[in-house]
Design a protein that fits this description.
Chain lengths: 299, 299
């Protein structure tokens, strides 16, 4: 699912936010926006929007930041989000324990965690508490839970693709539940190679102890998604050989929805009209969907 | 209040919508977006965002539309909005009749009408019914009603600057109430000279019978706001000589907030962060404010 002009307003809003978090003002901010405007105009429409984000970040980094610092303008926001998300840990655990089907509830919670995303413009608010309260009646516009469970039961090696900081707390609870039910299965949690927007990196995953729970690796992706051809060879091999892949969030969905894999599942909230239209669902719909390629003829 | 880079994402979203309403797709839509991106990059940051809208509209019009047609891509949407707004007419009248202070309620309703605006990206939904129900307890972040009433009582000539289609229904009810209370006052309702986004034109004002109620004129503005230097000479004279000016909405606010006039009042909802920050209020706040220049040192 490549970029299209529909992505430009959100991309610009995100770039604006990044430049502000980098402390840029006045002429510098205008210069960064101009760079972004020209990059969008010069590039063909059919690249991943994630590539524009990285190109502009690289420009900000080389032009305005010290070469010694890690470029992570969303660092403070990520820490704040993690702290908020952590306050929900116990109540999510409780929800799962008390549910008639604890695994299904854990999966629902993991999907719900995707609402935590201040990177997606149209979905900046953390209305987690509100959503969590009504999770029992939460409607999924696409809900391939049965095929998911069938794949999960057969799987030996599970690749779990992380998305945003804060959301990873929900992933941790879900993974804990899967491990409890299926202790023999191997689960690998994969994250971005470098900080990009609010996406989970190895450092972020460690901050919530994910590496203590399951093997945690970098996919090699420097994009806020998983452009498979731009991940490490070992990750590409892992992607191919995993028996089940759980892909979290819109960034991973946009970059992986055309990839072929017999047991690839997407957990996300459709946060923008482009993705909602593509999936033929309402904006903000919850999705638990088996790989699009063999299912609905998407490309 | 000139444009700044903060306006770019919303501007792009609006241009995208315009190009879609014009039926543009694929390469044509990309070409229009590229034109917009380059226009934004090439222009200095300190022009009115409204000028970018008009420049891109002009490009779409000359490149893709028949020269014989009126360029009014929002025409259908305006008609739909008008039809929805008209369904509220009776209940607004009733609210006003039943209120302890009918004039104050009429003024509040006129301000509330500004929530109808599918042109402002962050405020596309028509939650009129909901807002109307709680109008009695509606909080204004800035509420210069007393100075407004004092100016109104003394005024002989009142200039009322229209904003969006749909909102104009609320203006009509308010103007009716002012006329009922002060039949001797002359009221002039001024609108845009040409269709631009969803702003009221002479044809739109006639469609709701505004011209039967009060004198209705074009300000000469081709922008979705009132850049005074780009209105007709007669309008500029009228602006100067009016005893009271009621300026509706954000477009008029952004372009007039630095103008000097002793009895200029802004009725609006702060629909974007830039305006909310400028006014030091929360996003979506309701505003009934006396001219900023002599009041809060804005420029």
């Amino acid at each position: 699912m490549k970029a299209s002009v529909e992505c430009y307003p959100c991309l610009l809003a995100q770039i604006l936010k990044t430049s502000e978090l980098c402390g840029l003002e006045g002429a510098d901010k205008k210069e960064v926006m101009n760079f972004a405007l020209k990059t969008m105009a010069d590039l063909p429409a059919d690249i991943y929007p994630h590539e524009i984000v990285v190109a502009v970040n690289e420009h900000i980094k080389t032009t305005y930041c010290s070469s010694h610092d890690v470029f992570d303008p969303f660092s403070d926001l990520k820490n704040q989000t993690r702290a908020i998300a952590e306050t929900f840990y116990l109540s999510i655990e409780q929800k799962i324990e008390q549910a008639p089907d604890s695994l299904e509830m854990a999966v629902k919670c993991a999907a719900l965690g995707n609402i935590i995303d201040f990177g997606a413009k149209s979905h900046g608010n953390l209305d987690v508490q509100h959503e969590l309260e009504k999770i029992d009646t939460l409607d999924f516009a696409i809900y391939d839970y049965q095929p998911f469970i069938e794949s999960l039961e057969k799987a030996r090696l599970i690749l779990y693709l992380g998305d945003n900081v804060g959301e990873d707390i929900f992933d941790k609870v879900c993974i804990t539940e899967i491990k409890k039910k299926y202790p023999e299965k191997k689960i690998i949690f994969a994250v971005r190679d470098q900080p990009v927007i609010n996406d989970v990196t190895l450092a972020d995953a460690r901050a919530i102890g994910m590496d203590q729970l399951v093997e945690t690796i970098s996919s090699g992706s420097i994009y806020p998604g998983t452009i498979l051809s731009k991940t490490t060879e070992s990750f590409q091999e892992l992607f191919k050989t995993s028996d089940l892949i759980i892909s979290k969030g819109q960034g991973n969905f946009e970059t992986l929805c055309s990839e072929e894999h017999p047991h690839l599942f997407f957990f996300l909230r459709a946060k923008c009209e482009k993705v909602a239209n593509y999936l033929k669902v309402d904006l903000k719909s919850m999705i638990l969907m088996k790989s699009a390629t063999d299912r609905m003829g998407y490309s």
